Amino acid sequence: MELEKFYYDNRIVRNFSIAAIVFAIVAFLVGLWIALELRYPSLNGPYSWLTFGRLRALHTNAAIFAFVGNAMFAGVYYSLQRLLKTRMASDLLSNIHFWGWQLIIVAAAITLPLGYSTSKEYAELEWPIDIAIALIWVIFGVNMIWTILKRRERHLYVAIWFYLATWITVAVLHIFNSIELPVTFWKSYSVYSGVQDALVQWWYGHNAVAFFLTTPILGLMYYFVPKAANRPVFSYRLSIIHFWALIFIYIWAGPHHLLYTALPDWAQSLGVVFSIMLIFPSWGGMINGLLTLRGAWDRVRDSAVLKFFVVALTAYGMSTLEGPLLSTKTLNSIAHYTDWIPAHVHVGTLGWNGFMAFAIFYYMFPKIYNTKLYSEKLANAHFWIGTLGILFWALPMYFAGFTQSLMWKEFNPDGTLVYGNFLETVIELLPLYLMRAIGGALYLIGALLFVYNIIKTATSGKLVAQEEAEAAPLVGEYKKHKGEHWHRIIERKPIQLAIWSTIVILIGGAIEIIPTIFVESNIPKISSVKPYTPLELEGRDLYIREGCNACHSQMIRPFRSETARYGEYSKAGEFVYDHPFLWGSKRTGPDLHRIGGKYPNSWHYNHMWAPESMSPGSIMPKYPWMFSLEGNDGSLDISATQKKLQAMQTLGVPYTDEEIANWESTLNKQAEKIAADLNKDPNIDVEPNEEIIALIAYLQRLGTDIKNEPTSN
Amino acid sequence: MKINFKSKYVVTAVALFSSTSIFAASGEALRTFLKDPFAYGFTIAVVFILIALLALNKALNTLKYLTIKQTQGEEAAEKLKEKTVLSSMTEATSAEEEAELLLDHNYDGIHELDNDLPPWWKWGFYITIAWAVVYSALYFGTGDIPTTEQEYAAEMEEAQTAVDAYLTASGGAIDESNVVYLSDDADLMAGKEIYLANCAACHLADGGGIVGPNLTDEYWIHGGGIVEIFSTIKYGVPAKGMIPWEDQLGPVAMQQVASYVLSLKGTTPATPKAAEGEKWIDADAPASDEAPADAENATTEEPVTEETT
């Protein structure tokens, strides 16, 4: 048959690679910065946009979507063309995808530090950016599927199954989790509230890990590991089983992020059992990768690329075993809200995602620049420093998580908490926080060696922007040949493969989410729970702006150690007006769900101005920009208050039209009352229009409605 | 090392370990586990049994090897030894013989082998599925796995029993009905530490007062006896900015710090805040109203002492 000549587009691969590398350094730097802030809380100086609360989202978004995202696209564009023996279907779409994605990242890098945030983890970006993400994601999908349709290879290789499943699932997750009602151009409210919002968010959050950080990278693994090792893939059968099992089971496991919360028990239990069943499908990927290296182990010693792959796959195996174990109620009750969780996550991101990306770039750059890697030695040095960095990062955090959890739960025989002051358990961890920052710094140093090595490699060669290749076109009907595996049929039919994948990934989410939203008994009503006042609502938005939920939970779990410390455990019915929910996922500071009424207004006032004045040793930053003091203008922006109330009304929060019409007098009255109370203190001089007043109003309201229950009935 | 490592031992090990860790439903389970000698003993026993099984297996294999060597010759015996740990766990064809398993797939030079699923992987997957079925049956069906609410109720009840038993044994808890001034140096030092960590922010290290009132003078807003000071610390005066310390400090700690505060009476702070409240006259105190000269002497001269009991 006549061979056709065509050209692989290497320029788009190079572009995505450069973007990935640049944003990797940004993500690591921001990570290091916020790690240091936990040890030295006043690092942000007078700048609000440098605080942990705001930059934490920037760090996670940069690491996930900018670094791993661009690395994934680079790897997909490189491998997809070669696995299908064709050029990408449209250079225009490739370029729109590239530039669109980078613009989204830049928009994120500007808006997040400014405090424009939806508060939902890994989905903090506001609605205009959410729409842009959806559009660019669709463009990526169209380009990929179009390329698949004009392929010269009859069957789709396992890598491409993973790419397809990734594309479909991320689209579904992103769209459903980001349904929000815009209030202004940079402000929106999630259409879901409380428990439902939490479930949708963690269905998304968990599967962002599954389908953005795992499945596409497994796809890349299936291309780059056999290529780099020059070995056949260990088991085709294993690929089939672990692919389908993984995408089916993964989607169910989201509720394990919400064990012992106000989420209905049945949903929690589904999260537990599916997480346990996830262990072996996950490990299928690891062993298929590691066993592919059989017969190439002697080369692992010399080749940095293979070394990175081995550690990446091992880290993947470790964190996908640890994840399910953390999803058992036993371990979850210990680890949740502590530093154990970031440790677990970073073994995955630094070990699996980071090392996979490094290995792929070390492999790919010499290929597309038609040269050799500048220095294998430097790459080996990177490997060792990086590995050390991961260990230094994770081990202190495991220790911190365990230590703090035990301290939280320790009782005196007389029934009081041994560490009644939360701060004691924080101060205990400070040396460990410093060690973690050192681990991060090591990882960053390794990455800088990598950047240097890649630049030297690129400059020593020349980009082969158009790489020539030949292959025969697909002609005529394919004849099934004897004894072929039944799964081959679907590998010839990309549309069917896509449809089946879609069905498989929809089942788990649908079964968990739909009843939680529509069956009322899942969220028992509490009659005394009322909507926030206009001032409290504004205070709540300040809480979101400052990212308070990055360090404070609002979810008291039903444990003696929590109810003794914080008060009555949180009930599902208390969050019905919370658009979005603000349960948080980490307690760097104490839970705040029942902070209302616990301290006087002046305590909060002094504490927000200078946390250490009220809590010596506190690692919370100061928030002077919320005060009109010492040259700051802390006036509360009330230009959108009415719109906010109207939006909430649209979402089903029972504000009457009259309440909305009178919003300003209601707001002023409450603000004046709080200001008057504060001004009784001779050391305080506050105006009612300062942001701090709104924040105090919100904090003092938190968790108090339930206390009015007996009288209101 | 060539051991015929049978996958069933792996299965047994996984089952045993998961039964200890996963079926323990209480949040305190791991801590209990770490403290419980029985749990240690159990784990050690499991490990020993596994080692014993491995040794037994090894011995049987050696025996088998020797028997075959005697009856069928060395060649047949050597074949037995070929199964390595890796190959029996993965049941993979060795890399040298893989040609026969090579599928005709070729993607950009990538080939695929048709190795069977490793038995340990397959069995592991089955076990997790079985575990999920059992767990679901117990949770959704019979209700043998407690709900979070039931777990909480059980935990609270157990704790209450333990606390009650302790309080009965140790003569009751300290509260405002029975608190007394502690004149012991050790108690006052402990009180001072608590004071510096928690109170000094508002009352200054020397008790002179800044946000909160001066604690060294004779004037008290909420009463200056040990009972009154203890209550003020315990319940706070939220309206005036004094927070309740009940949750953060235990009863003994509150007693110690209340005693320390009382011991400050009559000391001279660097920047004393003007007096607030009423002059405190202790109803139960002896006629002599003389304040102690300084904190050190307070222990001996303190007028407000055990009379309150």
Explain the overall architecture.
The complex is a heterodimer of chains A (713) and B (309). Chain A has 28 helices and four strands. Chain A has helices at 10-39, 52-84, 91-111, 127-149, 158-177, 194-212, 215-229, 236-250, 265-277, 279-292, 297-300, 304-326, 329-335, 340-368, 376-408, 422-427, 430-460, 488-491, 494-518, 534-545, 560-566, 601-609, 611-614, 641-650, 657-661, 663-679, 691-701, 709-712; strands at residues 4-9, 180-184, 187-190, 466-471. Helix content of chain A is 62%, strand content 3%. Chain A has a two-stranded antiparallel ribbon with strand order 1-4. Chain A starts with a strand and ends with a helix. Chain A has two domains: 7-476 and 490-512, Up-down Bundle (Cytochrome C Oxidase, Chain A), CATH 1.20.210.10; 534-712, Orthogonal Bundle (Cytochrome Bc1 Complex, Chain D, domain 2), CATH 1.10.760.10. Chain A is an all-alpha fold and 713 residues long. Chain B has 309 residues and is mainly α. Chain B folds into two domains: 7-92 and 115-142, no CATH class; 185-308, Cytochrome Bc1 Complex, Chain D, domain 2 (Orthogonal Bundle), CATH 1.10.760. Chain B is built from twelve helices and two strands, in the order αααααααααβααβα. In chain B, α1 runs antiparallel to α3, α8 (185-198) crosses α11 (251-263) and α10 crosses α11. The radius of gyration of chain B is 36 Å and the shape is elongated. The N and C termini of chain B lie far apart (76 Å). At the A-B interface, α2, α7, α8, α9 and α10 of A face α2, α6 and α7 of B.
